[in-house]
Amino acid sequence: MSAQAVKSSVKTKAVVDESKPPYPYRTIVSLILLAGNFLVAAIYFHAINP
Question: Which residues cross the membrane (predicted)?
Answer without folding.
Answer: 28-47
